[in-house]
Design brief:
single chain, alpha/beta, Aspartate Aminotransferase, domain 1, Aspartate Aminotransferase, domain 2, 7-stranded mixed beta sheet, 15 strands, binds pyridoxal-5'-phosphate
Length: 390
């Protein structure tokens, strides 16, 4: 199936006024997503929030099914949360690691995750072990296996880091995790919607993701996947009357599905929007969407690397839709600003978001242009022309 780019762009009003290359920050929502959100808000305004939820129950519940279809799991393995971090935290803290437990992570790990490891090191005495990267810049699988011993209680990595095109070999990591029966938490915040995801093929026990990035959902949405056989190995760090039932004066019973990691109050409109965004992607085809965005990024990488004064910084044997670069003379914030003045949205990535990796490569601030399938070849050319002017 080939993508009808013109139709996809017509569905994306933002493409009329900007060249949006900040999809790794937050994508442009397609019209059906926007419409579903405002329709539900409208209904809430007209008839009341709880009454509107009741009326829209099918659309709300569809979000679980759509996400389950997308990442190939059961709907009972999905918890809907506010963002990727909220989901990730439920998984991480649910493990209840104790003194001397070791976590194996990768060099391209995301700041929020590392801050949490550091907090657990400070408060609980867990040990953080950063597995070095191989010659392609991805986690070294041999080295990961070498470091496994009885104290390793978690393998936790970012699938696609925030600072570049690298795609970590999540399935190879999954094989090692399975071989030694070590819990495996995958931060798939940037990868869901960017590349096809099959949780069984990856072999992760937990996976967290966000709605607003490559899934093109509304802001303030995310989810956590927990494999059904792993569910009872986690103790949800917080429970409320949604995740559990107060059954007698002195007891409660937790839900038996992944919704035990949720809490009562939801932005129903946004969750419905996330379901519509997921269906929109399923309709397009994850494979086709991914091939298109990766090939746009690859073209951009090639074109940028031909420009004088520009260095492209992307790592990885396999690369995704994010392209990072810097200019030998022009500071990164100025590049971002000049592009913004030309109607082109890009972002920047700093040491403090992925410190292990950025320090190793002596990088402090780089430009990040992140492509989606709805970006056009003309937009790519305009972006290159603007950078070339610098
Ligand atoms: C790799 C990675 N993990 C986690 C996050 C956090 O996602 P959220 O802001 O939805 O919690 C980000 C956000 O940029 C990210 O790039």
């Amino acid at each position: 199936m080939t993508l009808d780019i013109q139709k996809l762009r017509e569905d994306t009003p933002g493409t009329k006024t900007r060249i949006h290359l900040n999809n790794a920050g937050s994508s442009l929502m397609p019209l059906p997503v926007y419409q579903a959100v405002v329709d539900h808000l409208d209904l809430e305004m007209q008839i009341g929030g709880y009454e509107a939820h009741n009326r829209a129950m099918a659309a709300f519940e569809r979000t679980y099914d759509a996400i389950a279809e997308l990442i190939k799991c059961d709907r009972n393995e999905i918890a809907l949360v506010e963002n990727a971090t909220a989901g990730w935290m439920m998984g991480f803290h649910g493990l209840n690691l104790t003194k001397g437990d070791r976590i194996l992570t990768a060099e391209a790990e995301y700041a929020s995750n590392v801050i949490t490891y550091l907090q657990a090191a400070k408060n609980k005495g867990i040990i953080i072990d950063v597995v070095p990267s191989d010659e392609f810049g991805q986690i070294d699988i041999g080295e990961l296996e070498n470091r496994i011993d009885k104290d390793v209680k978690l393998i936790s990595i970012s699938h696609i880091p925030t600072n570049g095109g690298l795609i970590n070999p999540a399935s190879e990591v999954g094989k090692i995790a399975k071989k030694y029966s070590i819990p495996y938490l995958l931060d798939a915040c940037q990868s869901v919607g960017q590349i096809p995801i099959d949780v069984n093929e990856i072999g992760c026990d937990m996976l967290s993701a966000t709605g607003r990035k490559y899934m093109r959902g509304p802001r303030g949405t995310g989810f956590l996947y927990v494999h059904k056989n792993f569910m009872d190995k986690l103790e949800p760090p917080f429970l409320d009357l949604h995740s559990a039932v107060w059954t007698s004066r002195d007891s409660y019973t937790m839900r038996d599905d992944a919704r035990r990691f949720e809490n009562w109050e939801f932005n129903i409109a946004a969750i419905i929007g996330l379901g519509v965004a997921t269906d929109y992607l399923l309709n397009i085809g994850e494979q086709e969407a991914s091939q298109r965005l990766c090939s746009l990024a690859e073209k951009a990488r090639l074109r940028l690397s031909e420009l004088p004064n520009i260095t492209v910084h992307d790592l990885g044997r396999k690369k995704g839709g994010m392209v990072t670069f810097s200019h030998s003379q022009i500071p990164t914030p100025e590049i971002k600003e000049s592009l913004a003045n030309a109607g082109i949205n890009v972002s920047t990535s700093s040491t403090s978001s992925t410190r292990y990796d950025m320090e190793k490569r002596h990088l402090d601030l780089i430009v990040r242009a992140s492509f989606h399938y709805y970006n056009s070849e003309e937009e790519l050319e305009q972006f290159i022309a603007e950078v070339a002017k610098m």
